[in-house]
Specification:
- This protein has 394 residues and is mainly alpha-helical.
- It has two domains: 188 residues, MFS general substrate transporter like domains (Growth Hormone, Chain: A); 202 residues, MFS general substrate transporter like domains (Growth Hormone, Chain: A).
- It is built from 17 helices and no strands.
- Helix 1 packs antiparallel against helix 6, helix 4 runs antiparallel to helix 5 and helix 10 packs parallel to helix 16.
- The longest helix is centred in the middle third of the chain and has 33 residues.
- The chain is globular.
- The termini are far apart.
Length: 394
């Protein structure tokens, strides 16, 4: 079972950036470059519309059901997107991408936690690394293998490749044995939407709760801009060759992998609230570097740093801290935080696409503004967390 889930998320990692990697080809097929932002936003709509319902039903229908469903929906969405010529068709396929994302999440993460209850954090971290490795390899394949073999002439090959990985893995999913989630829940007396644990640091929702909600939006938005739009920035603002520009997100993936490993190590010695402030400030610095000193070297350096700081586990730290500090059920808290990320994936692409039409450099300025707001939120959370610790004598 474990291997199939990792392979699934490997393919999912490629699926998460395949549209942006093929942006130029898709825009030519759509005959309208303004479609891109709407299509990317539709992915967030698909995720937001299905996340809560799928999460509830996962406890009823089982993890395997949603992994199979997510895989099938992803395959249909990938093949369909490759042939879209209208905005309506592209939006439908993008919504399928988002829905498939939700289905895989609500099936995969609980399944791994149930299979490895003692090592859940390590296994889930390994999933993130698999996603980043896939995002590291996709641009390399498109730039190297496809071009060298002539397959790059037809951009649809990349969509078919990811769909094929999902299809082959689907066979393995069908034959895999999953833990009995109902038996485990009964044994551990787990109740969905349970009240918050008695112990731990608690606080009110008014100050840090709002800060966490805003941070959930910001943390997704800042790294999403770099992951999905950095290649077009390189192409339009720095006159990079399109194939070379598509390689830029690879540096983001490298930084992210390093960030995940560094975050795990750092949390053994430092408080998560301190790490959050440092990483968010680092993202802001890197974005300003790219904005005010635009060049290919600074874009590569900045993209790598932002991958390290914004996509290396800071979101996971934030949602964990939120469940510790806010006196609501862990499921409710996680849902609120992740929903803000879904909202960011809807509105941020629309905003960036509009900004691109004015000045490409303003995209980085917008990202810097988001990071600055995120830094303020991180500082507020840090101050409140330590204040509560002092009050409790921790």
């Amino acid at each position: 079972m474990t291997i199939t889930l990792f392979v699934s998320f490997f393919a999912h990692g490629m699926g998460g950036m395949i549209i942006s990697q093929n942006r130029s080809a898709l825009e030519a097929q759509w005959a309208d470059p303004t479609f891109f932002g709407t299509v990317m936003s539709a992915i967030g709509i698909g995720r937001l519309a299905t996340f809560f319902v799928a999460g509830k039903l996962s406890d009823v229908l089982g993890r395997k059901f949603f992994i199979v469903l997510g895989t099938v929906v992803y395959i249909v969405g990938l093949v369909g997107m490759a042939y879209t010529t209208t905005l309506s068709a592209a939006v439908i396929c993008a919504i399928m991408f988002g829905a498939a994302n939700s289905f895989l999440d609500v099936g995969t993460y609980p399944a791994l936690i149930e299979a490895f209850p003692e090592d859940a954090k390590k296994v889930n971290t390994a999933l993130v690394i698999f996603i980043r490795i896939a995002q590291l390899l996709l641009p390399i394949l498109m730039l190297g293998v496809f071009s060298a073999t002539g397959l790059g002439v037809n951009f649809r090959i990349s969509f078919f490749m990811v769909a094929a990985i999902f299809a082959i893995n689907l066979i393995l999913v069908f034959t895999a044995k999953f833990p009995d989630h109902k038996a485990i829940a009964a044994k551990q007396n787990i109740v969905n939407n349970s009240v918050a644990d008695k112990g731990g640091v608690k606080s009110l929702f008014t100050v840090e709760g709002i800060a966490f909600i805003v941070y959930g939006f910001i943390s997704m938005g800042t790294f999403m801009i770099i992951q999905q739009f950095s290649n077009r920035f390189g192409e339009a603002a720095l006159n990079m060759n399109p194939d070379t520009a598509n390689f830029i997100p690879t540096f983001f993936a490298v930084g992210s992998i390093a960030g995940v490993i560094a975050a795990i190590t750092a949390q053994r010695k430092f408080k998560a609230v301190d790490i959050m402030v440092i990483l968010t400030a680092t993202s802001l610095f890197a974005t300003l570097l790219v904005r005010f000193f635009p060049s290919v070297p600074t874009l590569i350096i900045g993209t790598t740093i932002i991958g390290f700081a914004a996509a290396g586990g800071v979101m996971q730290m934030a949602v964990t801290l939120m469940t510790e500090m806010i006196p609501l059920g862990k499921g409710v808290i996680s849902g609120i935080f992740l929903s803000m990320g879904s909202l960011a994936s809807i509105f941020v692409p629309m905003a960036v696409t509009a900004i691109e039409n004015t000045n490409q450099l303003n995209v980085m300025l917008f990202n810097a503004a988001l990071a600055a707001v995120g830094l303020i939120c991180a500082i507020v959370i840090n101050i409140r967390f330590k204040s509560i610790e002092r009050e409790k004598g921790v």
